Amino acid sequence: MRMARLGLCIASLSILGGPTLAQGKPLPPPASDAMPPTELAISLKDGKPVCEPNELRLPADTNVALTIASTADAPVVLTMGEQFENGRVLHHDGDLGHVMSEKGFTVKQNGRGTLRLRTMGAGTYEYACTSTRNQSAPTKGKLVLTPPAG
């Protein structure tokens, strides 16, 4: 009887542990140990979100802290290609919510928060800020990921 209960407990733990283990492959070590702080500002102009800087430059394959500050009176969704997928988000706090598709983060109106992420490989990518009030008119910018200084 005790062995049956023990087996049932072990089986339950393996089932419960399944989704946690299925979150993706662990990331390789970062290319640099530095975690440079960067700020992204969001505002609304004529009902359309504006994200500054328009060209966001970060080191590639590196852990970064991205502080997001919004003065918009509506929630704004921030997307950056595949940047928010596959375990690249190390931590988020404040007024930020990860959208279900893992494609972006919702920033609450007049919200502020920090994203700690592992950036993708070197290259130029598109990022966008979209108002939840007008999803057909996103503001697009460039995410430029450069090889980290050695």
From TrEMBL:
Keywords: Signal. The keyword Signal applies. Residues 1-22 form the signal peptide. The keyword Signal applies. This is Anaerobic typically selenocysteine-containing protein. It comes from Methylobacterium jeotgali.
